[in-house]
Amino acid sequence: MTEHNKKSMQDSKTYKSRQVFPQDTNHLGTLFGGTLMANIDEIAAICAMKHANNTVVTASTDSVDFLLPIKNGDIITYIAMVSYSGTSSMEVCVQIMIEDIYTGKHQLAALSFLTFVALDESGKPTPVAEVYPENDIERWFHETAEARVKRRKERREESKRTIQFLSEINDQQH
Questions:
Q1: Is the pLDDT of residue 43 over 50?
Q2: How high is the pLDDT of residue 4?
Q3: Staple partner for 7: which of 1, 11, 29, 33, CB 3.0–4.6 Å?
Q4: What is the per-residue DSSP string for 89-128?
Q5: Does residue 2 register a pLDDT over 50?
Q6: ∠8-14-16 over CA atoms, to 5°?
Q7: pLDDT confidence band for 170 (50 / 70 / 90)
């Protein structure tokens, strides 16, 4: 791959900060999980588009791990980066940080991995640049991506078998 077909993880890193308000919370006063997931998908898509210089679609949300409650009034920052790139797909890691504005302390509240596919003007998958890390954190995410990609492919095959089974059962029942 030529040098111009490579981009650093910093090139497409994307940030979004917001404060949690009462309308964003459930009866426990914590951020609705669905609201968090919608924001994750949005910031991850923007990050993937910046990397691909193209339109992208969400291929999968691989995981969303809720680590700390995000409460009414909290200021949260979504940090998205492309941690791995395949031929036309990209793994995007999103870290959700709670910021204490009084102390400046940041805590990881949630972590998510999503996969996006770049599309050309006709809606067909199109190649993306190879991504490379520049610091220790990025290197860790990049080096551990291969195992996540393997698990993702295995899970996708299992999903295909489940869909096939459900299709056959539904055909028999109708």
A1: yes
A2: 58
A3: 11
A4: EEEEEEEEEEE-TTT--EEEEEEEEEEEEEE-TTS-B---
A5: no
A6: 165
A7: confident
Q: Of how many residues is the chain composed?
A: 174
Average pLDDT of 52-76?
A: 96
Tokens of 141: 């995410």
Tokens 């400046």 correspond to what residue?
A: 104
- Nearest Cα neighbor of 12 from 88, 115, 92, 89 is 92
Report the C-alpha gap between 170 and 174 in whole angstroms: 6
**In whole angstroms, how far apart are CA 30 and each of 22, 68, 70?**
9, 10, 5
Q: What is the pLDDT of residue 172?
A: 86
150's CB contacts (< 8 A; 6+ apart) are none
